[in-house]
Design goal:
Length: 367
Amino acid sequence: MMWKTWGREGMDAADYMRRAIEIAYRGKGSVHPNPLVGCVLVRDGEIIAEGWHGHLGGLHAEQAAIADAEERGISTSGCTAYVTLEPCNHHGRTPPCTEALLWAGVKKVVIGALDPNPTVRGGGMEALREQGIDVESGLMEEDCILQMRPFMHWCVERRPLVLLKAAVDSDGRVDVDDSSPSERFTSDSSLNWAHKVRSEHMAILVGVETVVRDDPELTARGVDARIQPTRIVIDPDARIPENSKVLCDGLAPTILIHSKPVLSEDMPHVTRYVLPSEDREIEIEKILDLLGDLRIQSLIVEGGPLTWKKFLKAGVVDDAVLIRSQISLSSGNPDAFGELDLHEAAMQQISEEDCGGDIMTVWSRRH
């Protein structure tokens, strides 16, 4: 079967790359730490095959597109490949994509974004050119980079991209009091959104106080989370209860960060790290450096106002989402957190929408 321009006439190169970007999203939540990548093969103005990186260790997008054509008996000789990321030229979990393209007889490769890793950047492109393949790069580059933003950010900064997620009542309260477990006051739509976003990130971070009070699972539930995010707890003084779900349930990898060594017998899914600190306040930058070394590319900061404000003060929050419920908790600390905190941390509001009655505002760091 051929996709005759999906019923559209007069498609151009940008349309083909746009399609590659579209299908790349099918791997979301399943391929990290690899980036989302899509590829379409075109001949005589027709898309003859398409592929995307669907799961970690599986075929890369170029290989998947070639396999798609092969399974349906379509020759790829002389076609043009549109791929969102520069084809790899090294052996990893799979053979190099450059070799697959050469084997398939592709005559031209159009690349959206070059590999951001300085040690391999341009290598795939040059390897193809050396074999006589016509190569172009930079088509819809900004769109391709945006789709792979966590991967691109990590390759350059060696730290995860940080999303702060906060929820408050109509008056900016978070809890009725500081001693009892917190109660949910946001809408079902907001809850569903939160679990979807968790499934798309590599890690979730909270302070130990959240675990002590609420004993949360910190997992993505009710969504197709094929890879559960790693759970991270900042716990300088090793206060986490031994029967906490994150220590006992084995549902996801769990990292505890202490300020001093701790003797413990943990389940296999638990790892403890020590980041020494004289005043028991572990530097946020050191935490992010550690997570970067662990190849964690995207991080959701949850928890409560204390944790949120620490990350904002450190200037490391890239994006933020504030969910303001229309419900009033009627007691507790008003204005515990809100838009003013984000403004003061040089965050800029970029959108606002209704989420099941809650008001969800999205923020990005000013540059």
